[in-house]
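Hi team,

As requested, here is the filled-out complex form for the 1-hydroxynaphthalene-2-carboxylic acid run. I kept the field names the same as last time so the parser does not choke. Let me know if anything looks off before we queue the next batch.

— J.
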Amino acid sequence: MLSAQTSLPPETIAKRNELYRRLDTVAATPLWNVMARLVTPQPQPLSAPGKWEYDRMRELLLEAGELITAKEAERRVLILENTGLRGMSQITQSLYAGLQMILPGEIAPSHRHAASALRFVLEGEGGYTAVDGERIFMEVGDFIITPSWTFHDHGNHGKEPVIWLDGLDVPIVNLFATSFAQSYPGEQQAISRPEGDARARYGSGLLPIEHVAGGSSSPVFHYPYKVAKASLDALLRAGTVDAWHGVKLQYVNPLNGDYAMPTMAAYLQLLPRDFASLPYRSTDSMVFCVKDGQGESIVGEQVISWKRGDVFVVPSWSTVTHRTEGEAVLFSFSDRAAQKKLGLWREEKEGTSS
Ligand code: 1HN
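And here is what came back:
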């Protein structure tokens, strides 16, 4: 832009600058000065590759546990902020993530909001979440959703801290300026359905007769780890190992096969022992959380070594490969569900799987 300007007659430059000044006074600006920044030939994510070590984050959470109650905090969460997006409460440009802890006897009071939330349980027994009138107890590795505008509260009937990863689409909701939120009248919502009700109705390969699917999220809100892991193990034994992903499954709405929620996709994947994946990239920035095992991922130029509980980020269109020695299990989530609905999603697989 500058080099082009220097060859222009000085009076043209002066007249242009005068035009820009007057445009500024009417809250307008010339496209030709910003077009290359607005419309990039490839994704230019603001998020950077990064990792949060569980051991360190757990220590900080326990320290927070001594300084503030779940009730005072409403939710006792340490937000995982991407280094490229500090101060934004974002782990990627479209998603929020945090580590939440609830201590024995505590209650995180019931509320609802436009944002959809997902949880992946990392530690502790006896924690529960109530969603839409049903309470379920959470076990380590379970995947739980609280769809948009459903009342939800958490508690801990156990003897130890319960810790999980939260993922929310808050930045998407705020991009559209569509945020609403409400407290429930009372700490805990009324329980109207027995534990397992949603699974019995919708999540065991059967449905209530002549059921007509409605709503944009899965009516099943609890996806137990033992069920998911048994499927991964069976597929590994059957030799169904993808060269880019290992054995990878997505959490779905059993009514229509779509993702469990309209904005966020979530996955569980098993990387076999001595596995080295082929290079992969997609337009959805991915948040990974290590369920078990250890390994190394190369994200763009950066090597990220990981172990149980760690969270790491692969930004949009960054090439990623995973390497393991022993078997590992990774949970992950992204905004792929939203990108696909908007017709924006792309992926690229390098090499061949033969
Ligand atoms: C929320 O409602 C929870 O219910 C966790 O556990 C994290 C972050 C932002 C907004 C709402 C929860 C949240 C949140």
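Two things worth flagging: The pocket of 1-hydroxynaphthalene-2-carboxylic acid is lined by residues 75, 77, 96, 98, 100, 108, 113, 115, 117, 152, 154, 166, 168, 170 (CB under 6 Å). The longest helix spans residues 10-25.

Thanks,
J.
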